[in-house]
Specification:
76% helix
Length: 101
């Protein structure tokens, strides 16, 4: 599915960049893309995918930290702690603009 989506996005981008239809067609495509992005079903799917990604990343972090243990450099460990504190101190959005709900 990811490869199909990447292909479609690449195809659309190539069309927009290579088209000779002019500004009007570009504005139509931009409006359609905005409508798709603002669709509640699309937004919910993106939210659930982001949440699932955060869960998988947390599991991977724990699996790696159990195996690596104290071999992680202090700079990396401190960066991870600061990111965790930032996300648990009531931050409504992460770096991707999605909420943690």
């Amino acid at each position: 599915m990811r490869y199909k989506l990447t292909f479609v996005v690449g195809l659309a981008l190539g069309y927009v960049l290579g088209t000779r239809a002019g500004r009007e067609r570009y504005e139509q495509l931009k409006k359609s893309a905005r409508q798709v992005a603002q669709n509640p079903a699309v937004r919910n799917t993106a939210e659930s995918a982001a949440q699932q990604g955060r869960e998988f990343a947390g599991k991977a972090y724990h699996a790696v930290s159990d195996k690596v243990g104290d071999h992680v450099p202090d700079s990396v460990a401190q960066r991870v702690r600061s990111l965790r504190e930032r996300n648990t101190n009531g931050a409504a959005e992460d770096d991707w603009g999605t909420s943690n709900t």
